[in-house]
Amino acid sequence: MELTEAPRGDRPFIESYGPGGFRIGGERWTGPVLILADRVVAWERGDAAVPDAEALAAAFAGEGVELLILGLGAGPAAVSGAVSAVPPAARAALREAGLAVEAMDTGAACRTYNLLAGEGRAVGAALIALPAR
Length: 133
Prior knowledge:
This protein has one domain (about 15-125): MTH938-like (Hypothetical Protein Mth938, Chain: A, 3-Layer(aba) Sandwich), CATH 3.40.1230. It is built from four helices and eight strands. It has helices at about 55-60, 75-85, 90-95, 105-120; strands at about 15-20, 20-25, 25-30, 35, 40, 65-70, 100-105, 125. A five-stranded mixed beta sheet has the order 5-4-8-6-7, sandwiched between helices. Strands 1-2-3 form a three-stranded antiparallel beta sheet, with helices on one face. Strand 2 (about 20-25) and strand 3 form a beta hairpin. Helix 1 (about 55-60) runs parallel beside helix 3 (about 90-95). The longest helix is centred in the C-terminal third of the chain and has 13 residues, at about 105-120. It is globular, with a radius of gyration of 13 Å.
């Protein structure tokens, strides 16, 4: 899925997403990614169904990110999983690290991240790629 034209600036911008990965800042990424304030890194998340709150807090520590957009994949499981993807204890750990978190399907997460980053907000993203075909 192609997204709108990238805003100018030094923040990473998601140009497209699709099965297996993303195009961010002109570079192709395969698999899950973390979008920090000024760069993108591969997200080594393992096979856990629920993201590791401590690992996410550590990855975003000192990055100037206040809101973490969590993209959980596609389909009804991702949407229904958004409610339980970040259990209360994990939300508390992220909040203690200075991060609010919003979980949603990956497509919505990409669009939301781009909108907020374009507004200059202190936003980052943890995105699970859509299943490869």
